[in-house]
Amino acid sequence: MRRQGPVVVALLLALMVLVPLASGRQAAGNTWAGVWNSDFGPLTLDAGGSGSYTGFNPGTVSGSVTGNVDKGTWNQPGTPPKSGTFEFTMSADGHSFTGVWAYAAGGCGSACGWNGTCQSGACLKNGETTPTPPAQTGGCAGVKHDRRLQAAAALKEVRVVCVDGDVQYHREGSPTDQWQPLEKDLVLKAGDEVSCDPDGFTVLAFADNSTVTVRNTTQLKIASFFSEGGVVRTQILLKMGEVAATVNKTETTKSDFKIKSPTSVSSVRGTVFTVFYDPGSHTSITSVTRGIVAVDPAKPGLATAEVPAGKEVEVTATAVSSLATIGKAGARGGIDIVKARDLVLKVIAKHNTACALTTPRTGAFSVKPAAGGWLVAINATGGKVRGWSTWAVSSGKVRPANAAARKIAAGCH
Distance between CA atoms of 189 and 229, rounded to whole angstroms? Predict the structure, then answer.
């Protein structure tokens, strides 16, 4: 089990104002139910303290709640599978927790933290008293939501919840090269585009209470967004990279939510999922954390895949894979194409500032099969780096494979 970087974060959604409790003890009405932004990716828990987490190494937790403590075991599938124990302690205001984890055979314990912040679901109401405007933060870590998101829903807007790192946007109808810095609370419209650098991260809130998380060298376009017959219809065009979505079904709001890539269309109702697209190999992967996603390949004649929670499917320009455990569709060297790219982007993001790197708005990366794993090419160039960097990825390890990659890995010294 490994600690994840800040780019692996939870899906953000809220309609209520959060305020801390004056008391130092947990409020009686506080619950663990919801999605938490944790050190190991989005952690979805039920009221009993059990659930699952996603990220580079997805797994499940089986907990038992006593007071403000959730204690139990975690399990990660794989070869070999891994398991161990955890103990989470909820904060007095119910908005976060601190915790530790350990392997079943021992090790780590207090040295290995597992902390989290409530980002969506019932836990957002923990500690609720009289609504007051929360303190504003510039980035996405620990974001607290206010009534502006509720207002966005009423006005049928797409609003920027938070921004971390370098994220740009392009207005529909403006010159092709006119990209501007994305800012918190900006309202986006159909036709607008969003693009993230390797260190970029943003969350968009839609009027049907759905949220989309954009990160890791990703470009998307809000193709359409409108209401028709009591249904909020949303279509996002994923040009490259990865988006994670929480699509919420309520009694009053119905959603028709689609994410389209050049090789597939993913259609969902009441679910949590991610869609990845590699423009180099023309490969998409749809992974589902909760609910069911219908994945319709673009190539005529290929059957639609119904992807349940805990599974994913890979679609290329010519084929669709069998259902596989998350992280295993089309896997080579023990990892799939998404993790291979993410491992390389993690290295590049570490040196992004030192190397003064920039990435193009399209065609920024390509991931192709290689002996024992993958060959990842990243078009991140700057004042100190020229041309594509290539990286060999096998068994979870990244190795520079050309001069540009070696320079980036050395911090451009």
Answer: 20
Q: 115 is written with which tokens?
A: 């902390």
Which pLDDT belongs to residue 312? Answer: 92
Q: State the pLDDT at residue 248.
A: 64
- If one compares 232 and 237, the residue with the highest pLDDT of the two is 237
CB 222 within 8 A of CB 158: yes
In the numeric block, the tokens 């992280």 are attached to: 327
Task: Name the pairing type of β-strands 167-170 and 116-120.
Answer: unpaired
Which pTM does this prediction carry?
Answer: 0.62
pLDDT above 60 (res 217)? yes
Kindly report the length of the chain.
Answer: 413
pLDDT, one tens digit per residue, over 280-301 is: 889 999 998 888 899 999 999 9
pLDDT in tens, 135-193: 333 466 554 444 344 444 434 578 888 888 889 999 998 888 889 999 988 888 889 99
Give 57-101 pLDDT, tens digit per residue: 788 999 998 888 999 999 988 778 888 899 999 988 788 898 888
C-alpha dihedral over 399, 405, 409, 411, to 10 degrees? 180
The DSSP bridge partners found for residue 183 are: none
- The C-alpha atoms of residue 136 and residue 116 are separated, in whole angstroms, by 19
For residues 282 and 215, give the distance between their C-alpha atoms in angstroms, rounded to a whole number.
19
End-to-end CA distance of the chain: 32
370 close to 362: Cβ distance less than 8 angstroms: no
